[in-house]
Protein: Sialic acid synthase
Amino acid sequence: MSREFELCPGRRVGGDQPCFIIAEIGQNHQGDLDIAKRMIRMAKDCGADCAKFQKSELEYKFNKKALERPYTSKHSWGKTYGEHKRHLEFSHDQYRELKKYAQEVGIFFTASGMDEMAVEFLHELDVPFFKVGSGDTNNFPYLEKTAKKGRPMVISSGMQSMNTMHQVYQIVKPINPNFCFLQCTSAYPLQPEDVNLRVITAYQSAFPDIPIGYSGHETGIAISVAAVAMGAKVVERHVTLDKTWKGSDHQASLEPNELAELVKAIRTVEKAMGSPVKQLLPCEMACNEKLGKSVVAKVTIPEGTVLTLDMLTVKVGEPKGFPPEAIFDLVGRKVKINIEEDETITEQAMENHVKKVKY
Structure:
């Protein structure tokens, strides 16, 4: 069982805690603060635990040539990649406004710090936890500095190898024990054959003392629900108000009705996981009374007969008698009354039966 820790104030993850569901708004807000607020409200209304954004300090995330390169994609918000990213980037004051709005709505708020200076700002903003995007998971200086801030960390693992994830664990664990890994494949939209949910199991074996989760970029909700059934303690999915909007992430995002269905399905699966103890349950009693079978006399059995297997069969009987699993135990026992063919074999018909005394 994965160790649990407090990811957000009053909200723990891991162990037997419910799955923590992150609605990744990212930059699907189109650079519009009002849309961003609508998406925060939507995430809350759909039952997500956290609304998450992506914060970059562009001159620290990209070099000059990367920002100056032409960007002619149909998803572009500017002639260069820098202009495109600046259109989608909220200011520090806007982030403060969004965080305040999330508090008013009643949903946790955080962001992926896409570079070290963004992490510094998010630390100042007092987000409950840091999300490490897949692009920074093998950025070891960044990881070390982020871990030293002392806030819980959720670390995605897209584009990484198991060897790299072992290195990440060895770097972060001694500094900050409150972190988890998310299985992730960095493709948008993600095809089912590239999801590799079995990595969740591999992570659970390799890192048994931290929670393991799933960050999905597939379409639909089935795979994310399956991840929870496999033990994912955190699930992150991109969300949008409209999949047809401009932007490369929208197609791999969930619209409000899908997010609501995902949350509902996850909570249903969590209930269904239940107990590992197999036993007759109270809810099964009615069916057992109606359809449960008993041991029945296959032939007439005179008083004093020692039972053999060929004298017995199994049917739905009235009244109830010995259950079918007791049939072999009845062989060799003696009956003390006459039993007609097709009658139920009851305890009262057997020698050595002790009548219960009612007080």
Remarks:
- The CA atoms of residues 127 and 274 lie 33 Å apart.
- The first strand starts at residue 5 and ends at 8.
- The first helix runs from residue 33 to 45.
- The chain has a mean pLDDT of 96.
